TrEMBL record:
<feature type="domain" description="ACT">
    <location>
        <begin position="204"/>
        <end position="282"/>
    </location>
</feature>
<feature type="domain" description="Prephenate dehydratase">
    <location>
        <begin position="3"/>
        <end position="190"/>
    </location>
</feature>
<dbReference type="InterPro" id="IPR008242">
    <property type="entry name" value="Chor_mutase/pphenate_deHydtase"/>
</dbReference>
<keyword id="KW-0584">Phenylalanine biosynthesis</keyword>
<protein>
    <recommendedName>
        <fullName>Prephenate dehydratase</fullName>
        <ecNumber>4.2.1.51</ecNumber>
    </recommendedName>
</protein>
<dbReference type="Pfam" id="PF01842">
    <property type="entry name" value="ACT"/>
</dbReference>
<dbReference type="Pfam" id="PF00800">
    <property type="entry name" value="PDT"/>
</dbReference>
<comment type="pathway">
    <text>Amino-acid biosynthesis; L-phenylalanine biosynthesis; phenylpyruvate from prephenate: step 1/1.</text>
</comment>
<dbReference type="InterPro" id="IPR045865">
    <property type="entry name" value="ACT-like_dom_sf"/>
</dbReference>
<keyword id="KW-0057">Aromatic amino acid biosynthesis</keyword>
<dbReference type="InterPro" id="IPR018528">
    <property type="entry name" value="Preph_deHydtase_CS"/>
</dbReference>
<keyword id="KW-0456">Lyase</keyword>
<dbReference type="InterPro" id="IPR002912">
    <property type="entry name" value="ACT_dom"/>
</dbReference>
<dbReference type="InterPro" id="IPR001086">
    <property type="entry name" value="Preph_deHydtase"/>
</dbReference>
<keyword id="KW-0028">Amino-acid biosynthesis</keyword>
Length: 315
């Protein structure tokens, strides 16, 4: 069983995602993973660094939430060291539980702690139900629960799993300003053999564009020209100088697809830096769109024609 580092401590949504990657909840035929297979770490960067250092085979980290957007800590840490690639994704519904020390009532609650991404998803609920409580940031939702146990905060907004993990009382369950909120998580490894293409894949790259007119529009045009549907674009500062950004771009398809490989080579020529962040099956299994003239066979036939032109066999 590979050892997976995840953004912890125990009881985070990320632990739940890690267990989903391992096949939990257990079925009749599949035993629950032993806890020794999972290793909670305090930060997203530490989870990724554990993989870089060879202390873990893989890391599970949150990457994108349907309400609050990308998880900047994940994007920054993915490109802040030796290369890593995502090999799988999973999407979890996000509903929160509010935990307090046993016996506490809403009137006792002066501070509520949670991860900033979680706070953004329960702002309305907190304003309505705990209007006079100060909302404080914690490193994760489960770290907030640990803080409540330690007496640092009066309440924590957590994943439902934290209610089972920590001896705290549930003040409210099923809390969410947006009912169908979801978060997408990645399973990340050191570069190696890629997951096989399935026809329902996603590819992720990070690209720094050249400082010239139209550089970003060229990136978008390359994707559009290859018939590739973009599923996300996000920019983060490179941290080198003001105004220099790295674009995190997700799109449909697998690097083994001819159109995707051709588009990536075109991006490589145009951008000052391109980092491949993985090709993996989409969690929703939605088949990739292949528009006319962009199938593998279209690319291979064009290449065969070019070869015979170059060899003087065709004109
Ligand atoms: O703190 C946790 O429980 C996490 O797993 C992190 C995280 C996030 O970063 O978005 C995961 C899902 C929820 O959207 C809220 C917090």
């Amino acid at each position: 069983m590979p050892r997976i580092a995840y953004f912890g401590p125990e009881g985070t949504f990320t632990e739940q995602a890690t267990r989903a990657f391992l096949g939990d909840p257990p079925s009749d035929t599949r035993p629950a993973p032993p806890d020794s297979a999972l290793r909670p770490v305090e930060t997203i960067a530490a989870a990724l660094d554990a993989v870089r250092a060879g202390d873990a085979e893989a890391a599970c980290v949150p990457v994108e939430n349907s309400v609050e957007g990308s998880v900047a800590a994940t994007l920054d840490a993915l490109v802040a060291g030796d290369p890593l690639v995502a090999v799988a994704e999973t999407v979890l519904p996000i509903r929160f539980t509010v935990l307090v020390r046993p016996g506490a009532t809403p009137a006792d609650i002066r501070t509520v702690a949670t991860h900033p991404h979680a706070a953004a998803q329960v702002r309305g609920w907190l304003a309505e139900h705990l209007p006079s409580a100060a909302v404080l940031p914690s490193s994760s939702t489960a770290a907030a629960a640990v803080g409540v146990l330690a007496g640092e905060f009066d309440a924590a907004v957590t994943a439902p799993a934290a209610a089972e993990r920590y001896p705290l009382a549930v003040l409210a369950a099923d809390v969410a300003d947006v009912r169908d909120a979801v978060t997408r998580f990645l399973l990340v490894r050191r570069p190696g053999p890629l997951p096989a293409r399935t026809g329902a894949d996603r590819t992720s790259v990070a690209a720094v564009t050249a400082d010239r007119i139209g550089a970003l529009s060229e990136v978008l045009t390359v994707l559009a020209g290859h018939g590739i549907n973009m599923t996300r674009i996000e920019s983060r500062p490179t941290r080198n100088r003001l105004g220099e950004y790295r674009f995190f771009v997700d799109f449909e398809g697998h690097v083994a697809d001819e159109r995707v490989g051709d588009a990536m080579a075109a991006l490589r020529r145009r951008c000052t830096e391109v980092r491949f962040l993985g090709s993996f099956p989409r969690a929703d299994q939605a088949p990739n769109t292949v528009v006319p003239t962009t199938s593998d066979e279209d690319f291979l036939a064009a290449r065969r024609w070019l070869t015979s032109v170059r060899e003087g066999r065709e004109a």
